[in-house]
Amino acid sequence: MRKKVVKVTKITKILKVSEILDDILSDVPDEELLEKYGLGWQQLEKVYCKLFYGGFLGKDQLRRRTRLRAGKATSHIPLADIEDPGRIYECLICGYTSALHFSACPRCRQINLRRLTRKSARVIDASHRAIHAAASS
Predict the structure, then answer these.
(1) CA 136 to CA 95: how far, in whole Å?
(2) Would you say 81 and 69 are in contact if contact means Cβ atoms under 8 Å apart?
(3) Least confident of 16-20, 82-86, 96-100, 105-109
């Protein structure tokens, strides 16, 4: 007798950006957001990331959300990833570097996340110095 294999597909929730953004900007606590939209903590983290990288939320709003949670966990707010001073993102197509993650390179306009690398600032600085030294000699 053959066993049936049941695959569970993930459920995609569709949220209206204007609704959740209004709630976030009007300082609705994260616990209420979870309940209102039926989200988990990881899903809320993805919402914050998508709103930030989509240009709907800025660093200041994310900092304010972190301050509102004084004494509570803030790991779902991606501010540490956004402001990590030791990391720089580099487009491997044209060499553009930025402290902020980008999906489309501002210089060459290529959208290819597989060619976007996250390196430490020291590694990139050393490689740029070596390139400039070789070019000037």
Answers:
(1) 19
(2) no
(3) 82-86
Sign of the Cα pseudo-torsion (70, 73, 74, 76, in order)? negative
**Bridge partners, 88 (sequence order):** 119
DSSP 8-state symbol, 57: S
Within 13 Å of residue 1, how many CA atoms lie on the same side as its CB? 2
Distance of CA 88 to the CA centre of its chain: 13
Instruction: Say if residues 83 and 52 touch (Cβ distance below 8 Å).
Output: no
Confidence of residue 33 (pLDDT cuts 50, 70, 90): very high
> Smallest Cα–Cα separation from 118: which of 76, 78, 90?
90
SS3 63: helix
- Quickly state the pLDDT bin for 137 (edges 50, 70, 90): low
pTM for the whole thing? 0.56
pLDDT mean over 38-65: 85
| Cβ-count burial 102-131 (b if 16+ within 10 Å, e if not) | eeebeeeeeeeeeebeeeeeeebeeeeeee
Q: Rounded CA gap, 99 and 104, in Å?
A: 14
